[in-house]
Amino acid sequence: MGNFCFAFGYIAKYRYFKQKLLENEYDKLHEAIPDLRIEQYENLEQMIEIEMMINSIQYCSELGAFAIIVKNKNINNIMKNLSSLSEAAIKIFYDDIKNPNKRDIKKYMGYHEINVSSREEYEKYDRSCDRFIKDTQRLSTFYYNYYQLYLSYKHGLRIIPIKNEKGEKLIIEACKDNSMTIHVIPHMWYLEAIEVTEIINNIYEKLYMPLIRKKFGEFFGISFQDKKISKTIESTEPPDPTRKISLNTSFNFPWWIHDGKEPNPFY
Length: 267
Description:
- This protein is mostly helical.
- The protein has helices at about 1-25, 30, 40-70, 80-85, 85-95, 100-110, 120-155, 190-220, and strands at about 160-165, 170-175, 180-185, 230, 250.
- The chain has one domain.
- The strands form two sheets. A three-stranded antiparallel beta sheet has the order 1-2-3.
- The radius of gyration is 22 Å and the shape is elongated.
């Protein structure tokens, strides 16, 4: 049961924690691998920067996939639907965000069933949509700026980080037509990856993890209002395929951070 909860948290948190590990690796590179030449450290730093960028682009892709599933109300079959979504569908999501329709934004945020009745609630909802649009438009810009880098990395590691005589960071990309493209990389460009990762983590924490917990709780008939869950259901021998999943467990779940006041629908 604990592993099951971990698996659902993994969807939202893995890329975030990986980014933190990469940041730590970047900051403590000299301690982790001592006695290298200066240029070797510089090359390793460039490679870690690329890893940060690739990880955050993948995080963008995963968030887009999850937003599509939420919009289409397919969260009950989340693993199946995540595995079947195409990259083209995710690119469409980031295209649509550039010129958003608030009706669609409401669906992407999981607001399908919110009854906005008072003026105060409407103002909160409207501000939430505006914040979500601003954040996802930032993700869209980042995603498209570096998507080609991601593809070249993903399909055969066709990128080589180097520096020129001016000290500028460059990436040599091996193209499919056997040519080479040289990209000049902005100074401290990896800070974009850190920024984007924080935005995505915040979207998951504010919108999607509460929704996952809600669906999870409905399925097992449990509540996440307390930090400890106890639930006992008798199992059957031999297993009965018509019976709901059974469990007998008590566990803590620090992987799922929450304030005890969910659901709070506003982003």
